UniProtKB/TrEMBL annotation, chain A:
GO terms for biological process: mRNA splicing, via spliceosome. It comes from the Eukaryota. Pfam families: SF3b10. PANTHER family: SPLICING FACTOR 3B SUBUNIT 5 (PTHR20978), SPLICING FACTOR SUBUNIT (PTHR20978:SF10). Belongs to the SF3B5 family. This is Splicing factor subunit. One of its GO terms (cellular component) is U2 snRNP.
UniProtKB/TrEMBL annotation, chain B:
Residues 824-833 have a biased composition (Polar residues). Pfam families: Beta-prop_RSE1_1st, Beta-prop_RSE1_2nd, CPSF_A. Subunit of the splicing factor SF3B required for 'A' complex assembly formed by the stable binding of U2 snRNP to the branchpoint sequence (BPS) in pre-mRNA. Sequence independent binding of SF3A/SF3B complex upstream of the branch site is essential, it may anchor U2 snRNP to the pre-mRNA. May also be involved in the assembly of the 'E' complex. Also belongs to the minor U12-dependent spliceosome, which is involved in the splicing of rare class of nuclear pre-mRNA intron. Belongs to the RSE1 family. Residues 839-848 have a biased composition (Acidic residues). Signal peptide: none annotated. Residues 443-762 form the RSE1/DDB1/CPSF1 second beta-propeller domain. This is DNA damage-binding protein 1. Keywords: Nucleus. Residues 820-850 are annotated as: Disordered. The keyword Nucleus applies.
Length: 89, 1217
């Protein structure tokens, strides 16, 4: 398949649009850390949304469900610890 | 294999709740979301919570809100779910359904990070609603009404902010100014790119006000200000003349009042004195009470303490915020204050409760205030308090909830007719063993001994207009006893009934006369005391009688029928005679239809296995209209009108139809529809009820006709939410019964059994199971059955709690401090066992753990016990509390091959287990116990240290298999410890389950599904020969057959995997047992892969699975229990025809009746993996709730009648329960 320049431009802009609209859409230069952060945030959001899972964790940790939900929300700030140092190039 | 999935017990846990006037009128109702179901509850006059409606929505409900348009009399419900849609529901009283008013799609389905649905807020004046996601997205919908006063909804207005986490959202009460919504937000964009961690440390939560400009139709960020970083919850403060407006921000340890242009008013939340310093205090639920003149807030902390928050204000300036200790109740997920003075507390775990307010916390108590807030160098000065007994609230009702079910087993330990379900439920001090029996619970009101063995009982009114019954008449072999009902029930002799003969029937005749039918005649007692007697001709005796209020038919010995009718003057006149071919087995006449003089149908059962319908019309009197042959002679007949329910509380439109019910001598109940015009019989259904021929009696349930069937156990047939249900009663065998109504008991039953007269009422209609509760000490983990003496061995463990002795010491100290003296110590033992599960006496117990929860210890402390319990009595015969932070996680019974000790108990424990920051432990142990005192007690044989947590134990070929972390190890019994025999370390993560069958071992990994292993004795090797290709986070597993395992994963799926037949044969035939192939494993896995044969999304975390049959002689199905406290069953279909029928019905139901909250049914059942070979019975069972024309349309497509479909649904349900 031969891509015209306009097509390529079009695909890029589509991708940009997707990245802006859907948090967590990947791109070619995605680092391991960014990927992991997205996965973790998605997971925490899913735990918060699925009440039975929240209850399952709450039983395991012997905490109240409300506390468990709060803990997961707090963890969404830095889900994988501090970001790595950036290479200058 | 095709399975039919059916929920047997709806989930008990509550996700969220909201209250309002949904029915319209003065009453207050509560809408409760239980995960996948939406319930409408209402407290009745006596303070009992009644369920008006319960709908399965096939989606996860995450948030609920209620709103009212100004000037309207009725509230709407807004539902935020995982459907990517906002749904507004209105309750329709006429049809008893939730009617979907609006359904607005805004995003993808599923619980996603940026798709709204997690939070909902409405403007207090009902002008707008905001729906928000955990991150970024917030949408505002404008609500209004059109010219016809219908609710309208605008297109969504965006209030997004990317890289922002939302913690809570609420509507701000600002009267009729532009609607404002408040949100707690946290921006993480800088923390994500700053490797030094400075940005993360500086990250600050903000309270942001969003204003909806109704004129411009636009949402703007109006105001944003930093707020305490522990903030987690917002509560609206009344405004617009009723209060100062603004919001309460609940944060860890603090409550802060905030409003635009107003300084913060902050107060600390009082702490329990015994709380470890490392722990904060977090508010988990809140409720607001509003009256015209005042308002206050009730905030509950994560420990269960409720605080009353009041605001001192002058106009809209708040001068002081006070937090006063109110009461302590079990931690709730949601609280609702009703205007009628009730507090509905939906517990996070365990039973929910309805409380009544005794006081509103005006009395003196521990109080923290913004005025006395002290800031020192270490932060704000805390305020301490000690929890105490309930002062302001009184519990008046509770709603049972099994949440969470930790383990379950179906067994017939008590050798009853049906097996019992043993479930371990609850958490911490509210844990219990609940024994569930299929059937309705009864409440026994009175039992009195009679002077002989009664054969029958009736109740009779003196006048048709009387509300209550006047007499109970009991017949013996040679006498009749008459009891009058008043304040007490006592024998009378002035009733006019003949007491020297047995009776065949006693009833009210006409409006106000009584009739007694005895073997030698009919005695008619007129209202003024005159007595007319009709005597049988010759030596014949009356053998059977059938009657209603105006008609009587008697059968004489030999088979002669004589028909009497009541004439205008109130005389009983003989109308017709008819000779039947043989003796009559039973008779019944349908009740007189409204506005008519007679019923047209007489049903006669004969010993030649036939039932005939005869006409009673004057034109064709005693003509046979139809004949039905049955499998066995009928014993009892009942013509029951299943009433047309054109709506009201009972839902679904049902055409009125008369059912002929016959109890046959072989124990089968036979039901068939009688055509109202021709008397033809059609649409027959039969069901085996028990070993004795069912005797049928009519009864009233909730003012409707119902049927009692007495076989070897009693059954009740009644209509519940549009379904006709035939459910067993959990009661002993009864001989004869009649409905009973008196001052004390409006809808009861009087029955005879043995030599006793029993009066009882039937409780909690619509429930599938009734429960017996045995309280436990800590969160139960697992249990096994001691095979010899049938005792249960239960392991319980809790993290972050004190041992019983430590708690005892602390309690003593506290009681002494409170100068309560010695009398508090009298019931120490009982307090250690945290009181009775359903007991109402804990209110006066000074510090019941069940109410207050265990005091929190540091998170690295563990408490645990091993308990031997006699399930018959509920008594604990042995309780071993583990010491020094040791906690039990697994157990099994094991018979070692040398048989020296007989059955031993193996318990796997861990010492000092910690999950954070990294999973670590001091040591793992396997304890071996011997049963002593005939299995009632345990004695430690020895204890073996292992390197990890033994999460699963299992007997295998006279040895013990243990799953310790990723190692599977085989142990033999030694004198002083267990001896390692063989091991395999090749499991991917952690072994959580093991089953054995013949020489195979089925191992479940926490993250990687099942692995099938074999043990080669000659080479002493354990090896994996097959595994699953899908990573599954196992939460439950069960062995189905040689090649098949059933499992459930953390995300709420149930699946079956099977090793293909040819592979299985190959392995079994291979002399190396597939071992050579094993050595060549592929891609780090086993050489053979299992196939997934069944897949189904339950929508709830399944914690236990078992293959069992719940009815005697019924097919086996897979029963599962979930975290939310629901029980369900998967029944394998036996014929291809049924599979076709139900899959087509399911398909039509999906099309014609999409789920209420907007989630696509197919997408829900395929949420993680595409659903495979499972038909959703819960959806099919919604068929009877459809309007009749839709039912007919679907039935036509399936080439059947709606009646046939209903029958099919009933049949398949009867195969399960």
């Amino acid at each position: 398949m031969d891509l015209k320049a306009s097509d390529r431009f079009n695909i890029n802009s589509q991708l940009e649009h997707l990245q802006a609209k859907y948090v967590g859409t990947g791109h070619a230069d995605l680092s391991r850390f960014e990927w992991a952060v997205n996965i973790q945030r998605d997971s925490y959001a899913s735990y918060i949304g699925h009440y039975p899972i929240l209850a399952y964790f709450a039983v395991a940790e012997n905490e109240s469900i409300g506390r468990e939900r709060y803990n997961f929300m707090q963890k969404m700030l830095l889900p994988c610890g501090l970001p790595p140092e950036r290479d200058e190039d | 294999m095709y399975l039919y999935s059916l929920t047997l017990q709806r989930p008990g846990g509550v996700v969220c709740a909201t209250n309002g006037n949904f029915v319209g009128g003065k009453t207050q109702e509560i809408v409760v979301a239980r995960g996948k179901t939406l319930d409408l509850l209402r407290p009745d006059e006596s303070g009992k919570l009644q369920t008006l409606l319960s709908v399965e929505v096939f989606g996860a409900i995450r948030s609920l809100a209620q709103f009212r348009l100004t000037g309207s009399q009725k509230d709407y419900v807004v539902v935020g779910s995982d459907s990517g849609r906002l749904v507004i529901l209105e309750y329709s009283r006429e049809r008893n359904v939730f009617h979907k008013v609006h359904q607005e799609t805004f995003g993808k389905s599923g619980c996603r990070r940026i798709v709204p649905g997690q939070f909902l807020a409405v403007d207090p004046k009902g002008r707008a609603a905001m729906v928000a996601a955990c991150e970024k997205q917030k949408l505002v919908y404008v609500l209004n009404r059109d010219a016809a006063a219908r609710l309208t909804i605008s297109s969504p207005l965006e209030a997004h902010k990317s890289h922002t986490i939302t913690y809570s959202v609420t509507g701000v009460d600002c009267g009729f100014d532009n609607p404002v919504f408040a949100a707690i937000e946290l921006d993480y964009s800088e923390a994500d790119i700053d490797p030094t961690g400075q940005a993360a440390a500086d990250a600050q939560k903000h309270l942001t006000f969003y204003e909806l400009d109704l004129g411009l139709n636009h949402v703007s960020r109006k105001w944003s200000e930093p707020v305490d970083n522990g903030a987690n919850l917002l509560v609206t403060v009344p405004g617009g003349g009723d209060g100062p407006s603004g919001v309460l921000v609940c944060a860890e340890n603090f409550v802060i009042y905030k409003n635009q242009g107003h300084p913060d008013v902050r107060a600390v939340i009082p702490r329990r004195a015994d709380l470890p310093a490392e722990r904060g205090v977090l508010v988990v639920s809140a409720a607001t009470h509003r009256q015209k003149s005042m308002f206050f807030f009730l905030l509950q902390t994560e420990y269960g303490d409720i605080f009353r928050v009041t605001l001192e204000h002058e106009g809209d300036r708040v001068t002081e915020l006070k937090i006063k200790y109110f009461d302590t109740i079990p931690v709730t997920s949601s609280m609702s204050v009703l205007k009628t003075g009730f507090l509905f507390a939906a517990s996070e775990f365990g039973n929910h409760a309805l409380y009544q307010f005794q006081a509103i916390g005006e009395a003196e108590d521990v109080e923290a205030s913004s005025a006395t807030l002290m800031e020192t160098e270490e932060g704000f000065q805390p305020v301490f308090f000690q929890p105490r007994g309930l002062k302001n609230l009184v519990r008046i009702d509770q709603v049972e909830s099994l949440m969470p079910i930790m383990d379950m087993r179906v067994m017939n330990l008590f050798e009853e007719e049906t097996p019992q379900v043993f479930t371990l439920c609850g958490r911490g001090p509210r844990s219990s063993l609940r024994i569930l029996r299929p059937g309705l619970a009864i409440n026994e009101m009175a039992v009195s001994q009679l002077p002989g063995t009664p054969s029958a009982v009736w109740t009779v009114k003196k006048n048709v207009n009387d509300e209550f019954d006047a007499y109970i008449v009991v017949s013996f072999v040679n006498a009749t006893l008459v009891l009058s009902i008043g304040e007490t029930i006592e024998e009378v002799s002035d009733s006019g009934f003949l007491d020297t003969t047995p009776s065949l029937s006693v009833s009210l005749l006409g409006d106000d006369s009584l009739m007694q039918v005895h073997p030698n005649g009919i005695r008619h007692i007129r209202e003024d005391g005159r007595i007319n007697e009709w005597k049988t001709p010759g030596k014949k005796t009356i053998v059977k009688v059938g009657l209603n209020r105006l008609q009587v038919v008697i059968a004489l010995s030999g088979g002669e029928l004589i028909y009497f009718e009541m004439d205008m003057t109130g005389q009983l006149m003989e109308v017709e005679k008819h000779e039947m071919p043989g003796d009559v087995a039973c008779l019944d006449i349908a009740p007189v239809p409204e506005g008519r003089h007679r019923s047209r149908f007489l049903a006669v059962g004969s010993y030649d296995n036939t039932i005939r319908i005869l006409s009673l019309d004057p034109d064709d009197c005693m003509q046979i209209l139809s004949v039905q042959s049955v499998s066995s002679p009928p014993e009892s007949l009942l013509l029951l009108e299943v009433q047309a329910s054109t709506g009201g509380e009972d839902g679904a439109d049902h055409p009125a139809s008369v059912f002929l019910n016959a109890g046959l001598q072989n124990g089968v109940l036979f039901r068939t529809v009688v055509d109202m015009v021709t008397g033809q019989l059609s649409d027959t259904r039969s069901r085996f009820l028990g070993l004795r021929a069912p005797k049928l009696f009519s009864a009233t349930v909730r003012g409707r006709q119902a049927m009692l069937c007495l076989s070897s156990r009693p059954w009740l047939g009644y209509i519940h939410q549009g379904h006709f249900l035939l459910t067993p009663l959990s009661y002993e065998t009864l001989e004869y019964a009649a409905s009973f109504s008196s001052d004390q008991c409006a809808e009861g039953v009087v029955a005879v059994a043995g030599e006793a007269l029993r009066i009882f009422t039937i409780e909690r209609l619509g429930e599938t199971f009734n429960e017996t509760v045995v309280p436990l000490r800590y969160t139960p983990r697992k249990f096994v059955l001691q095979p010899r003496c049938k005792h249960l061995v239960i392991i319980e463990s809790d993290q972050g709690a004190f041992t019983a002795e430590e708690r005892e010491a602390a309690r003593k100290e506290c009681l002494e401090a409170a100068k309560m003296g010695e009398n508090g110590n009298a019931n120490n033992r009982q307090q250690m066992e945290n009181g009775g599960g359903a007991g109402d006496d804990d209110e006066d117990d000074a510090l019941s753990d069940e109410q207050y929860g265990y005091p929190k210890a540091e998170s690295d402390k563990w408490v645990s016990c091993i308990r031997v319990l006699d399930p018959r009595t509920g008594n604990t015969t042995c309780l071993l509390e583990l010491q020094e932070n040791e906690a039990a996680f697994s157990l099994c019974t094991v018979n070692f091959h040398d048989k020296e000790y007989g059955t031993l108990l193996a318990v796997g424990t861990a010492k000092g287990l910690q999950f954070w920051p990294k999973r670590s432990l001091a040591a793992g142990f396997i304890h071996i116990y011997r049963f002593v005192e005939e299995g009632k007690s345990l004695e430690l044989v020895h204890k073996t240290q292992v390197e990890g947590v033994p999460l699963t134990l299992c007997q295998y070929q006279g040895r013990l298999l243990a799953g310790i972390g990723s190692v599977l190890r085989l142990y033999d019994l030694g004198k002083r410890r267990l001896l390692r025999k063989c091991e395999n370390k090749l499991f991917p993560n952690t072994i959580v389950s093991m089953h054995t069958y013949r020489d195979r071992i089925y191992v479940g990994d926490i993250q990687e599904s099942f692995h099938y292993c074999k043990y080669r004795r000659d080479e002493n090797q354990l090896y994996i020969f097959a595994d699953d290709s899908v990573p599954r986070w196992l939460t439950a597993s069960h062995h189905i057959d040689f090649d098949t395992m059933a499992g459930a994963d953390k995300f709420g799926n149930i699946y079956f995997v099977r090793l293909p037949q040819d592979l299985s044969d190959e392995i079994e035939e291979d002399p190396t047992g597939g071992k050579i192939k094993w050595e060549q494993g592929k891609l780090n896995g086993a050489p053979n892969k299992m196939e997934e044969i069944v897949q189904f999304h339950v929508g709830d975390v399944v914690t236990c699975l078992q293959k069992a049959s719940l009815i005697p002689g019924g097919g086996e199905c897979v029963i599962y229990g979930t975290v939310m406290g629901s029980l369900g069953a998967l029944l394998p279909f036996t014929s291809r025809e049924d599979v076709d029928f139900f899959s087509h019905l399911e398909m039509h139901m999906r099309q014609e009746h999409p789920p209420l909250c907007g989630r696509d049914h197919m997408a829900f059942r395929s949420a993680y993996f595409p659903v495979k070979d499972v038909i959703d019975g819960d959806l099919c069972e919604q068929f009877p709730t459809l309007p009749p024309d839709l039912q007919r349309k679907i039935a036509d497509e399936l080439d059947r009648t709606p009646g046939e479909i209903l029958k099919k649904l009933e049949d398949v349900r009867n195969k399960i329960i």
